[in-house]
Amino acid sequence: METIYDILKAEHKQVSDLIQQALRDGSKETFFIIKAKTDPHLAGEEKLLYSLLEQKEDLRELVSHAYEEHNEIKSISFELESLDAGSSNWTSKIKELDESVSHHVEEEENKVFPAARKTLSEDKAQQIAQQYLDFSKSFQQQHPMP
Ligand SMILES: [Fe+2]
Ligand SMILES: [Fe+2]
Fold first, then answer.
1. How far does residue 141's CA lie from ligand 1's centre (Å)?
2. 126 near 26, Cβ under 8 Å?
3. Ligand 1 centre from 38 Cα, in Å?
4. 91: CA distance to ligand 1 center in Å?
5. Domain count of the chain?
6. In terms of residue numbers, what domain contains 44?
7. pLDDT of 145
């Protein structure tokens, strides 16, 4: 059975491929596809994974740093929403998003997930996977793409 880590890692790969595509095609449509993947991903991680991990005293700092990185990604994404794809700072903002996401994905996969694996049972990680899929589905229904 799939664990939450399998699902999140697969989404990390999808998002980084999409960001590379956005760097090539410079289109706002591609950005909105990235946003539609990223928004429920960040919200789902916070609601279903980070919330459990931060209950452990020794993981609190790691999780709080991960929240900060989420906020950085959200703020870059928010700025991109109001920029024209043809504007002069569009490409540099997409590059900022690329760097911010790449850095966060690396920290998550190399620090947060290994720490979570030590804390949560395999059963729990499978259970969170199911909750995450349900959450992501209803999030997307409530936030349709423009
Ligand atoms: Fe993630
Ligand atoms: Fe994350």
1. 20
2. no
3. 8
4. 23
5. 1
6. 4-142
7. 79
Q: Percent of the chain having pLDDT more than 70?
A: 100
Name the percent of the chain lying above pLDDT 90: 95
Domain containing residue 73: CATH number: 1.20.120.520
pTM: 0.96
**Tens of pLDDT, residues 116-134:** 999 999 999 999 999 999 9
What is the whole-number distance in angstroms between the Cα of residue 44 and the centre of ligand 2?
9
